[in-house]
Amino acid sequence: MRAPIGNFDEAHPATERLDLLPAPVAAAVTAEMLYVDTDPEKADTAVFVETYGADLLDASANCVVVAGKRGQDVTLAACLVLSTTRVDVNGVVRRHLGARKASFAAMDAATGATGMEYGGITPVGLPADWPLLIDAAVVDAPYLVIGSGARRGKLIVPGKVLAALPGAVVLEGLGS
Q1: Which CATH class for the 11-171 domain?
Q2: Where in the chain are the domains?
Q3: Greatest CA span in the chain, whole angstroms?
Q4: Cα-based distances in Å from 102 to 61, 112, 115, 173, 174
Q5: Which residues are in the YbaK/aminoacyl-tRNA synthetase-associated domain (predicted)?
């Protein structure tokens, strides 16, 4: 099967590649999601785009874990924005979470809570009680490349499918 975006050797329905996905991601992928094998050494956006296709610069989204704090309470959430933008952690995220302070979660906290590898965190298969904040531009994309939960491999997913994930809240201006 050929991927709808990028220059990948082959694409497979993600539901047929469960053995290559971390357990929480494998339990959550759907028939609309494709899996493509990629070199983990080429996972960072600039190198990834150079290797797998210039069209992916505008068709990639990054998922980051943030921690919102109010007093002793800490809320972990995931944010999904186009790879050409940055998450507005101190504005949109902080206000949405009702936090006094928001910051990127520590690597060990993010990987421990998600069961995913750092650099491959995906919005697919997140803990059920987490908010998933998605920039509105992500939802409008016909297809996006996102993490697979591991540094090796990516998922290709329609933007509208991402908006339907558990806990998803679409926000204008999340990515700036």
Answers
A1: alpha beta
A2: 11-171
A3: 51
A4: 21, 19, 22, 16, 13
A5: 57-162
Global pTM value: 0.94
Block mean pLDDT (10 aa), the chain, length 176: 94 97 97 95 85 93 96 96 95 96 95 94 96 97 96 96 97 95
| Tokens at 127, concatenated | 């803990």
Please, what is the Cα angle at 159 between 54 and 49, to 5 degrees? 15
- Cβ-contact 63, 123 below 8 angstroms: yes
Contact by Cβ (8 Å): 24, 120:
no
Q: Which two tokens stand for residue 156?
A: 């290709």
